[in-house]
Amino acid sequence: MEDKVALMQALAAQYGVKVLMALVIFVVGKWVVKRLSVVLEKIMEKNAVDPAIRHFTGSLVYYALLIFVCIAALGQLGLQTASFVAIVGAAGLAVGLALQGSLSNFAAGVLLLIFRPFKVGDFVETAGTSGVIQSIQIFTTVLFTPDNKKVIVPNGRIIGDNIVNYSANDTRRVDLVFGIGYQDDIDAARKVLEGVLAADKRVLENPESVIAVVELADSSVNFVCRPWVKSANYWPVYFDLTEAAKKALDANGISIPFPQRDVHLHQQ
């Protein structure tokens, strides 16, 4: 009996300190890791990083560092940790290979949220589609098309493609083309178009609008009409000016020709 007690005392003396140190390493390490993840999230918050990215990155760092704390605690107990490290590395490699597409989209989502080539509410054209940005998520971006279809685009495709942001600037130029007949007065047509632009209060005075002859086409003399408007007014102005110009040209007796062909018959 005394031998067993002595053995237990010897084992307690031998391993008790190791167990205690392992617990200390785990508890203190877990606290340090938690604090590091919180500090990281606060740093990202100060840099206006998206909340979803902050929480995801904070959790990722927390659990990754916690694994190393656990390995250090097990090493303190005298266990061979090389095998654990190998297992963790192999598991990480396997997960990385299995999720390489998702990880690529995640990295692209981080870049979109950091560099912000567009924001929610912008009208953009990218990855073969166009629409209003509804939400920018970790792996995908959601757009609503002009006919109200929901399109979910992987972030990787957006980063790898051109991004045309129609809402990036406060103003846009409306490009219109009007044709008049060769027999019509060019100066009179220009005055009519100038009057149409002046009558629309949405047309900006600065930058100045451009009205000029751009082409002597087969059936018409073509004018370009390029007023500047607020980006939000682009399509309403585009449609209204097209209609107003047609009515004004008609009211002033200026024709808008259409393609036609003269056929001459020669009798023999």
Features:
268 residues; alpha+beta; five-stranded antiparallel sheet; 10 strands
How far apart, in Å, are the first and last alpha carbons?
Answer: 139 Å
Element order, helices and strands?
Answer: HHHHEEEEHEEEHEEEH
Number of helices: 7
Residues in helices, as a percent range: 40-55%
User: Quick one: overall form?
Assistant: elongated
Major sheet details: 5 strands, antiparallel
Q: What gyration radius follows from the Cα positions, in whole Å?
A: 35 Å
**Strand arrangement across the biggest beta sheet:** 4-3-2-1-5
Oligomer: single chain
Strand content bin: 15-25%
- The structure class reads alpha+beta
How would you explain this protein's 3D organization?
A hairpin with a 4-residue loop joins β8 and β9. The protein is of the alpha+beta class and 268 residues long. The protein has a five-stranded antiparallel sheet. Strands 7-9-8 form a three-stranded antiparallel sheet, with helices on one face. Strands 6-10 form a two-stranded antiparallel sheet. The mean pLDDT is 84. The longest helix is centred in the N-terminal third of the chain and has 45 residues. The protein contains seven helices and ten strands.
